[in-house]
Structure formats: structure tokens, C-alpha cells
Amino acid sequence: MKLKQFEKQQYLSIESLRKNGQAVKTPVWFVQDGETLLVWTQAGSGKARRIRRDGKIRIAPCTGSGEPIGEWSQAYAQTDESSEAVKHVTTLMKKKYGAMFAIFGFIGRMRGGSKYTAISIQLQN
């Protein structure tokens, strides 16, 4: 699969669609778990809402500012707000991003975000 281009990358750009069809690109932290890419985000975030409505997305490795540094790939994403899924992705994110992940999680909680979701992404052939 094309997952090789995501190895050792820090950021992933997710392109999801608004209701009106307009594409929105969002750079995010991610982890690889076997053949799946996982993202941790607030359950009410725009990307989570868009993915719940339509799981068809495009992804590419990118810089922290969202500039693609690899090829765009078609993918399918779904959200999972179960405590098991959120705990699993949280554990993997802590391993990959360390203290920075903890800091961003703390900031999110301070801003009123307490419910999180795991987004699982599968590349399409």
C-alpha cells in the first residue's frame, strides 16, 4: 500500500468535504496502527463532523502548516467515540508525540473540549 509515504512523518493533511461540496484541508497529528492511520481530535471539531457525514477523504503527508510533501491518496475515514478507541489512539499519540501531545490535550480541555474521538483512516486501492 501507499502507507510508506506516511512513515516517519509528523503531520497528515486530511481533505474532507463540507455539505456544499467545498473541500477543507486540515493538517493533523497522526499515528500508524498496522494498515490504519489514526487521528485524535475533539468530537465536535469540523473535521469530525464532516467525516461523520461523509467518510470519503483524501490524505497526504504535510508540513505543520498543511503544505503537502507527498502524493494525495483516496481514503475512507470513520469516527469512533468509544472509550476503548479514544484510549488506544491516545496511548499511541503519547508514544509518538510525547510532551507536546500532553500539552495540546491540556489546552484543549482548558478551552472546554472534553469529549474526543478517534478517527481511523484506511487507504483506498
Query: What's the story with the biggest beta sheet?
Result: 7 strands, antiparallel
Strand adjacency order, main sheet: 2-1-5-6-7-4-3
Instruction: Provide the succession of SSEs.
Output: EEEEHEEHHE
Structural classification? alpha+beta
CATH architecture: Roll
Distance between the termini: 8 Å
Percent in strands: 35-45%
Helix content: 25-40%
Our Rg estimate from Cα atoms comes to 14 Å
**Number of β-strand runs:** 7
The CATH homologous superfamily is termed: Electron Transport, Fmn-binding Protein, Chain A
Please provide a written account of the structure.
The radius of gyration is 14 Å and the shape is globular. With 125 residues, the protein is of the alpha+beta class. A 7-stranded antiparallel beta sheet has the order 2-1-5-6-7-4-3. A hairpin with a 2-residue loop joins β3 and β4 (36-42). It has helices spanning 46-53, 83-97, 99-110; strands spanning 11-17, 23-29, 31-33, 36-42, 56-62, 73-80, 116-123. The chain has a single domain (2-123), classed as Pnp Oxidase, Chain A (Roll), CATH 2.30.110. The protein contains 3 helices and 7 strands. The mean pLDDT is 90.
Which helices and strands, and how do they pair?
Blueprint: E1 11-17, E2 23-29, E3 31-33, E4 36-42, H1 46-53, E5 56-62, E6 73-80, H2 83-97, H3 99-110, E7 116-123
Antiparallel strand pairs: 1-2, 1-5, 3-4, 4-7, 5-6, 6-7
